[in-house]
Amino acid sequence: MNVPQHVAIIVDGNGRWAKAKGMPRAYGHSAGASNLEVICRDAWELGIKYLTAYLFSTENWKRSRDEVESLMRLFRRYTKTCLKTARENNMRVRVLGDPSAFAEDLQESLRILEEETKGYTGLNFQIALNYGSRDEITRAVRSIADEAARGQLSADEITEQVIADHLDTAGIPDPDLLIRTSGEQRLSNYLLWQLAYTEFYFTPVPWPDFHREDLVKAIEKYNERDRRYGGRNS
């Protein structure tokens, strides 16, 4: 089986999964965070080298105050759990998005998570927090414009690679496969630049119920695709 090097996931359905069980949405988010730990191990065992998960978008601030506060508490716990998992599994963790909107203690936890794991050589795990692709591209354009204004870059020197190097995913290969759980079939402002040639896989399975066999099924469907780039087979 040809295993994709990089799998991106839109983690979706936690709240609906909890509601179906008569539980609060926070219960679903907690179950989803626990499942993410398991899927990271499964992905590495299957041969995936990069896994990127969409956890909190720039639009998620519009959710109810109670839910946002619950998610912030969850992220505080999750960063500690994730650091422990990273140490045990030689897993490098990187944060995509703009963490400056978070409270200072959460920003510091995310900084520590990245710093302490940067030398690890196992799974490359990216978590998208306060992430939106339009925001990412806007920040990249501002950075490029600032370099141009300081005379460090001319207009003729701005290439696709220069833009890619200013994105949050700089140095990370583009995803080969995107998985979205819980039945929705849209990108929701996720990795719009990076997904240009990515294969998409949508499943009705809510994220807390998405297990190793579901990941294998997605990879099997990926293997059925005729990968083409600009009209050429991969």
User: Regions with pLDDT < 50 over 5+ consecutive residues?
Assistant: none
Q: Which range best describes the helical content: under 10%, 10-25%, 25-40%, 40-55%, 55-70% or over 70%?
A: 40-55%
**Overall average pLDDT:** 95
Task: Please give the number of β-strands.
Answer: 8
Q: End-to-end distance, in Å?
A: 16 Å
- What's the architecture, going by CATH? 3-Layer(aba) Sandwich
CATH class: Alpha Beta
CATH 4th-level superfamily: Decaprenyl diphosphate synthase-like
List the helices and strands and how they pair.
Blueprint: E1 6-10, H1 14-20, H2 25-46, E2 50-57, H3 65-89, E3 92-96, H4 104-117, E4 124-131, H5 133-149, H6 160-165, E5 177-180, E6 199-202, H7 212-224, E7 228-229, E8 232-233
Parallel strand pairs: 1-2, 1-5, 2-4, 3-4, 5-6
Antiparallel strand pairs: 7-8
Helix pairs in contact: 1-2, 2-3, 3-4
Q: What does this protein structure show overall?
A:
With 234 residues, this protein is of the alpha/beta class. It has a single domain (6-132, 173-233), classed as Decaprenyl diphosphate synthase-like (Undecaprenyl pyrophosphate synthetase). The chain is built from seven helices and eight strands; from the N terminus they run βααβαβαβααββαββ. The protein has helices spanning 14-20, 25-46, 65-89, 104-117, 133-149, 160-165, 212-224; strands at 6-10, 50-57, 92-96, 124-131, 177-180, 199-202, 228-229, 232-233. Strands 3-4-2-1-5-6 form a six-stranded parallel sheet, with helices on both faces. It has a two-stranded antiparallel ribbon with strand order 7-8. A hairpin with a 2-residue loop joins β7 (228-229) and β8. α1 (14-20) packs across α2 (25-46) and α2 runs parallel beside α3 (65-89). The protein starts with 5 loop residues before the first strand and ends with a strand. The model has no long low-confidence stretch (mean pLDDT 95).
